């Protein structure tokens, strides 16, 4: 299990990568994560997960692998969060508009 400083470091790295590589990672018109970048991110993490069985099973190797997977998964996680958030906002916004029309 990862300690909270390691998790905080992964999140911090993802924020830095997202802001530093905004032109590459995000669509300049919408500000959302590009689907191609998210797909490559997810594929890279899945490949590392598949390769994990062939790596040494000592604790340090597993920790480094989890950190790398956490950093690489950032764009894919952001993509999913953005999609779910936009769906939730449209559902809530749609209900709010319906309620206003009925009054």
Kindly list the characteristics that best describe this protein.
single chain; about 100 residues; elongated
State the gist of this model.
The protein has 103 residues and is mainly alpha-helical. It contains five helices and no strands. It has one domain (4-102).
Describe this structure in words.
The chain has five helices and no strands. The protein is 79% helix and 0% strand. It has one domain (4-102). The chain starts with a helix and ends with a helix. The chain is elongated, with a radius of gyration of 18 Å. The longest helix has 29 residues, at 74-102. By secondary structure, the protein is mainly α. The chain crosses the membrane at residues 6-25, 37-55, 61-81. Keywords: Membrane, Transmembrane, Transmembrane helix.
**Which term fits the overall shape?**
elongated
Number of strands: 0
Strand content: under 5%
- Rg over C-alpha atoms, rounded to the nearest angstrom: 18 Å
Annotate the secondary structure layout.
Layout: H1 4-20, H2 22-25, H3 35-51, H4 59-72, H5 74-102
Helix pairs in contact: 1-4, 3-4, 3-5
């Amino acid at each position: 299990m990862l300690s909270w400083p390691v998790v905080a470091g992964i999140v911090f790295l993802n924020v830095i990568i997202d802001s530093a590589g905004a032109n590459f990672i995000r669509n300049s018109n919408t500000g959302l994560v590009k689907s191609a970048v998210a797909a490559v991110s997810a594929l890279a993490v899945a490949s590392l997960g598949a390769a994990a069985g062939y790596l040494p099973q000592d604790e340090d190797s597993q920790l480094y692998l989890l950190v790398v997977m956490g950093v690489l998964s950032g764009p894919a996680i952001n993509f999913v969060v953005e999609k779910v958030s936009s769906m939730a906002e449209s559902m809530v916004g749609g209900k709010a508009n319906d309620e206003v029309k009925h009054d």
